[in-house]
Amino acid sequence: MLDFPNNEVKSGFLTMVASNYLNTTENVNSLAQDLAFALADGETELFRKQLTSFLASIPYSMRRKSTEPERERYFQYTFYLLLRLMSVYTVCIEREQSEGRVDCIVETPKFVYIFEFKLDGSAEKALQQIEDKGYDRPYEADKRTVYRIGVSFSSETGTVEDWLVAEE
């Protein structure tokens, strides 16, 4: 697996890529740290606000158009890339399990976050899919707190439209 040789290189890469991608002078490292701290502290609402703010800063011309296939994957990829670059946490996408594939799992020392994404759907439906397919079952014996999070992205605004959290 490819990885950065150290945190200094990782930080420099994140700053360069995100600054060019977003065309901003905002301190990208600060955003990444804020997101990482929110996950480390189990602050799901703060994480949602920061993620929504980040997504809102991406120019609409960068998002996939309605005529392009796999528009949901754009949001999933952006989410994964942001999480992978900002943290040392374990981040898995499309993890296959006995009853399906989880969109994203983030593991921190104290918490496990299981995300299911829907594009122009409901967060309730996404959360229900996590429960119906038992995406949290592999963590039943885990001592960490498990958060199941249903996320609905809006293709119109390019941000988080709806967000539901269930905690075990």
TrEMBL record:
Classification via InterPro entries: PDDEXK_9 (IPR012547)
Pfam families xref list: PDDEXK_9
PANTHER family: AAA-ATPASE-LIKE DOMAIN-CONTAINING PROTEIN, CONSERVED PROTEIN, WITH A WEAK D-GALACTARATE DEHYDRATASE/ALTRONATE HYDROLASE DOMAIN
The protein, known as: Protein containing DUF1703
Organism of derivation: gut metagenome
